[in-house]
Amino acid sequence: MNSVYNENTGIELDNWNFGAMLCPFLWGLGNKIDLPLTLIALVSLCNPFTALLVCIWFGLNGNKWALEANRYESVDAFISIQKHWAAGILGMYIIFYAVFAVIYILG
C-alpha cells in the first residue's frame, strides 16, 4: 500500500471528501481514479436521484480511492491536496453561479 497508510491514517480515510462529493467526475479524473468510476459519475448526471447517490458514494469513499490511486509524501500532503480539491471545486461552483446570476439579472 502507499507509504501514508498506517494506523494513524485510518481516521483520515473515514472522513468525508467534499471535493469528491461536489464534482465526482472532475475529482475522479484529477485524482487518477479508475475510469469506470469516473464514467459512472458522468453517466449519473442524467438522473438527479442517481447523481445524488453517486455524490454521496464518492464523498464516503473518496479518501480511500485517492490514497489507493496516488502516492503522497505524507499524511499532511494528502490532506492538503484533498482540501485544495474541495476549495477549487467550490470556487468553480461560486463563479459558475455568479456568472449565471449576472446573465439572468442583465438579460
Description:
By secondary structure, the protein is an all-alpha fold. The chain has one domain (10-106). Helix content is 75%, strand content 0%. It contains six helices and no strands. It has helices at 10-14, 18-22, 24-30, 35-43, 48-69, 75-106. Helix 3 (24-30) runs antiparallel to helix 4. It is globular, with a radius of gyration of 15 Å. The model has no long low-confidence stretch (mean pLDDT 86).
Briefly summarize what is shown:
This protein is mostly helical and 107 residues long. It has six helices and no strands.
Count up the helices. Answer: 6
Strand content: under 5%
- What form results from the Cα inertia axes? globular
Mean pLDDT over the residues: 86
| Unreliable stretches covering 5 or more consecutive residues | none
Could you tell me the radius of gyration in angstroms?
15 Å
List the helices and strands and how they pair.
Blueprint: H1 10-14, H2 18-22, H3 24-30, H4 35-43, H5 48-69, H6 75-106
Helix pairs in contact: 3-4
Keywords:
107 residues, 6 helices, mainly alpha
